């Protein structure tokens, strides 16, 4: 037994327009096609289904009662197509992603996450910025941005790039203490520095400064934001990440005849999260942003 062809959207949209406007002329105008084209579509649809769908008269047109289910189908298709157009370029990725990073990564990470929510508005983020490393193996966070490697076999580490460092000071400090902006390798001991305290006092940056003779630290802090503010206020010189300091107004990168340190940056997550869409999209966004910002 031969079955009737399935009506196409092009056919059904003409039937829907006839139902709404009551004439082939009105339907053609609504769809921006000629009256004869609209009529041919309906003739072809009726022929394919083997039954009349439209009552034609000098007063206009009316849909046959048994054709109303096709009109309802056309309305559903129209609504579905409108929803698809509204959500074009978006996805149904959603849920909460918990991110752990040092305070220095908080602002760039926030920019990445804010851009990501424009594409995936169902995503939610919890960003923890602290010097303590969250235990990703115990799922204290989903994703970590770190400068140290982990020995845990359940964690996946992706090298995002290398963070380069420079010696920075405020223009006021340079004018007062460092005319020309050049720091002699033998002069570390007579200059003021801004550095870390607490757990960060053992950081590679502090070790590098100590190894080259820096002893005067009139301002120490456990906060990256406070450290930057102290440098901006002319409190001393600091070893700062180029990616964070180079765009700060009023800071000067000093010349020094020494190789400056670099440190790797890793994006870390539990291996069970590799196939979780909400985590995968965040890892990808971080990797792309860091690839552009780091060396």
List keywords for this structure.
295 residues; alpha/beta; Arc Repressor Mutant, subunit A; D-Maltodextrin-Binding Protein, domain 2; 2 domains; seven-stranded mixed beta sheet; two-stranded antiparallel sheet; 10 helices; 25% strand; elongated
What does this structure look like?
With 295 residues, the chain is of the alpha/beta class. The chain is built from 10 helices and 13 strands. It folds into 2 domains: 9-86, Winged helix-like DNA-binding domain superfamily/Winged helix DNA-binding domain (Arc Repressor Mutant, subunit A, Orthogonal Bundle); 94-295, D-Maltodextrin-Binding Protein, domain 2 (3-Layer(aba) Sandwich). The strands form 4 sheets. Strands 3, 4, 5, 6, 10, 11 and 13 form a 7-stranded mixed sheet that branches. Helix content is 39%, strand content 25%. α1 crosses α2 (24-31), α1 crosses α4 (68-86) and α5 (106-119) crosses α10.
């Amino acid at each position: 037994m031969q079955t009737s062809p399935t009506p196409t959207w092009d056919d059904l949209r003409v039937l829907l327009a006839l139902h709404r406007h009551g004439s082939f002329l009105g339907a053609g105008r609504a769809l921006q096609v000629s009256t004869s084209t609209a009529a041919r579509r309906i003739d072809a649809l009726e022929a394919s289904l083997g039954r009349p769908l439209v009552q034609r008269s000098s007063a206009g047109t009316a849909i046959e009662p048994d054709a109303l289910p096709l009109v309802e189908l056309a309305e559903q298709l129209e609504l579905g197509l409108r929803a698809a157009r509204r959500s074009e370029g978006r996805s149904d990725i959603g849920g909460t992603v918990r991110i752990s990073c040092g305070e220095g990564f908080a602002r760039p990470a926030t920019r990445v996450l804010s851009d990501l929510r424009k594409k995936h508005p169902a995503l939610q983020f919890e960003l923890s910025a602290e010097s303590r490393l969250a235990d990703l193996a115990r799922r204290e966070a989903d994703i970590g941005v770190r400068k140290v490697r982990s020995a845990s076999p359940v964690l996946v580490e992706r090298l995002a790039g290398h963070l380069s460092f420079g010696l920075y000071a405020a223009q006021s400090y340079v004018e007062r203490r460092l005319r020309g902006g050049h720091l002699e390798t033998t002069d570390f001991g007579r200059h003021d520095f801004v550095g870390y305290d607490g757990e960060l006092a053992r950081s590679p940056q502090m070790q590098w400064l100590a190894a080259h003779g820096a002893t005067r630290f009139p301002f120490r802090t456990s906060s990256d934001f406070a450290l930057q503010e102290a440098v901006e206020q002319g409190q001393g010189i600091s070893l700062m990440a180029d990616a964070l300091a180079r765009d700060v107004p009023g800071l000067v990168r000093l010349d020094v005849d020494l190789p400056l340190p670099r440190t790797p940056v890793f994006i870390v997550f539990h291996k069970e999260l590799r196939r979780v869409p909400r985590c995968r999209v965040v890892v990808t966004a971080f990797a792309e942003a860091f690839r552009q910002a780091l060396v």
